[in-house]
Design a protein that fits this description.
Blueprint lengths: L5 H6 L7 H11 L4 E7 L5 E8 L6 H4 L1 E3 L3 H9 L3 E3 L22 E8 L2 E9 L8 H15 L4
Antiparallel strand pairs: 1-2, 1-6, 2-3, 4-5, 5-6
Length: 153
Amino acid sequence: MNNIPEKISEQLKESPINWKNVLEATISHFDCSTGTLHFLKPGTSILELQAQKGIPDFLLPKVSAIPIGKGMAGIAAERMKPVEMCNLQTDESGVARPAAKETKVEGSLAAPLLHQGKLYGTIGIAKPVPYDFTEEEISLLMTIGDAICQKIN
């Protein structure tokens, strides 16, 4: 797991893995406040919430099961590539669902969990301020996603 920050790498060595701790270490590394980790439910096109931080309780029903193609996570899964938004609060692309604005986050990044071309789910991180993630940050989140895929099952 080269190139992955040590704290995240250590969390992925636990047995069993505490996915909330993996997500929190990832959120912390990127200096974010909010995040989600969804795993693809086998045999379906539904992303099931595995862990989250900073999502308001009233939004949990909306983010607990996300169809591929809906919202940032669903679109990242559908496209099999990261989806970034500098400011979710002012976005008018239709990518972010209206309820997403209730999270109060702005700079957001959702990445598919991919390993050898296969989709395993998504990971999303967000900041409470407008932010453009760098190519290096996007690449690192994809690398973390690949490492997570290798630990699912």
